[in-house]
Write a structure and sequence with these properties.
Distance between the termini: 71 Å
Number of helices: 14
Order of helices and strands: HEEHEHEEHEHHHHEEEHEHEEHEHEEHH
Strand order of the largest sheet: 7-8-10-9-11-14
Bound molecules: ligand BES, zinc ion
Largest sheet: 6 strands, mixed
Shape: globular
Strand content: 15-25%
Radius of gyration: 22 Å
Helix content: 25-40%
Length: 473
Amino acid sequence: MGGVGEPAIVTEAVLTLMRCLKVPVQAHQAHKENGMVRVPFSRPLALRPAARAAALAVGLLASAAASAAPSVWVSVGSDAYRLLRMAGAGLEQVEMHRVPVQVPAEAGGLKTQQETLYLMRVDEAALPRLSSEVHERLKRCGGYVVHASREDGRQALARFRQTPVQPEAVSYKVDDEAEVNALLPQLQESQIRSTILNLSTAYKNRYYTTTGGVGASDDLVQTWKALAAGRDDVTVKRFDHPGWPQNSVVMTIRGTTKPKEIVVIGGHLDSTIGFTNENSIAPGADDDASGVASLQEVARVLLHSGYQPRRTIQFMAYAAEEVGLRGSAEIAADYQARGKKVVGVLQLDMTNYQGSSSDITLITDYTHAAQNDFLQKLARRYLPELTVNLSACGYACSDHASWTNRGFVASFPFEAPMGLHNPFIHTAQDTLAQSGDTASHALKFSRLALAYAVELGSDGPEPAPTPARLARR
Ligand code: BES
Ligand code: ZN
């Protein structure tokens, strides 16, 4: 393997990531990380596949040696596991778990497929490189999920074997038409657009460890508090994560008659370009400023209209999604531990790039089939002009999986069928310009999310107004 362990090889992994995303590669600034200098290149290096595996191996080992990084428990799919094995990446205590996932069937509808997931301990420093290798070789993003412990990982994988039961209390009947139809026209594309623009340009990046990542979280708390002004039934709180500086942010509209039952609408606040540091340019306009902007617009309209749900509705901007769903994993674990009754979760991650003629794609794996059907019903009723189709992510690709892991009912409406989604994510080119400087696609997701929030939040037509209700408005 002589020679391939030069610092240049490490940089090549970054270029590889960009090339696999079909981004024109420009000169990058050299920077230092883990004591190794990254050398700038203006063009990708061509490595043969075998050399590539060797490069990964040496890179992994080099970074393990250079930093006494702690090891973490992760689960990965079998393809990503093969890459790690080939790389000889010091995997410890590997366990194999079979889980059923639902994927679209050719003939329409769904079929169940068995997937093998691996739970193991790896050096934390190896993880960014794993992501970029998966990008290159498997033509997809990602795929490792971080678990707090071995037991935690085992429980999560065991969960995937069971379909979460639909909470008894919930009805998937579409019966709040007056309220939903009054609110839908209030959603504004321009609001979503300006939120995406602000999140993607006000900071160099929103990575979970950087100044920008922390600043974005602090600013979001202020923005959401301003939205909630004048509503004493609304709180905005930070969810602190002891392991890293970026907070998740949670806005709560307290339910009037069933405050203990919670509807969650979330997206992730952090952004990445893979090897991200303080000065990396990671605008994350689509991934996932778009999701946060889409759900913030729902919140704005619900709050300003004076809408009061029967159930509690929580809006969440998760920290640290890009590094193994860590923020949402901690929140879902906390909610499970406290026995909180979350009746449904909606994840908005990448809503603003229309990669096909389909408007909304419902992700079928690691989500809840009955709630997905409910979303289709909502779309047919309230957004009949939109086309909805099904697609599988192929792995636990976003925060919905953290909730599914803990036995909650979660869905993930996505911008395009898998493979036709925004090719610029995780690069410096993930800007609003890639979506034609408009948020018109994201608006469709706000509309679906608003229908979901009200139909589950009220779960039945508005009762006749009482004097007390009127006084509260
Ligand atoms: N938004 C992506 C997930 C995604 C990308 C879904 C492309 C569908 C198509 C998300 O932010 C992400 O990048 N997730 C990680 C996985 C996670 C477990 C770290 C990824 O895919 O690398
Ligand atoms: Zn994302």
